[in-house]
What we know:
This protein is an alpha/beta fold. The chain is built from ten helices and five strands.
Amino acid sequence: MDISKECKESIVNGNKSQAEELAKKAVKEGLDVDQIIDAFSEAIREMGDLFEEGEVFLPELMRSAEAMKTAMNILTPLLSEGKANHILGRVVIGTIEGDIHDIGKTLVASILSAEGFEVYDLGADVSVNDFIEKALEVDAHIICISALLTTTMIGQRKLIEELKERNIRDRFKVLLGGAPVTKQWVQDIGADGTAENAVSATKLAKKLLGH
Length: 211
């Protein structure tokens, strides 16, 4: 079987160990890394479309995203210069301080990465200062900040306020995520948007950067 086809199947089936094996095989045998990444990416996009159409459900999409993330961890450092120059944008993402929920955030990070963004995932329980320092360090285009608890949502407001305080609010687009986040909250604190799921979040990120 063609390795590109196998790569797609590993993602569609959410087979993390197979995706990892295929990524390692591609590296070991000196295969075209860009082509292998394209195969993985095509599969995660397909899963995202199926999710939006209600053909697959969140657990399946999450398994696919995890398989994708495992493969990308191996392949991303080997991207060709040409491919690296064609990234859609740099994204710093994490869950705000005091909140340890990271499933949704990890899924968004995986899909963003699959779609061609350079993603810096800071994990969960991330301070406002750490978000900003990382965004400055990598010259990010977007900061994605998740909060699953109403009690930690205030951290999203603090991030916006801190960016304004430092006179760098205009440098970054700020996207909010998490179950309690509403469009009204986005408007109230002056963020740039929110989305219902990882697929929509990726489409919004592209739109904000003019892709």
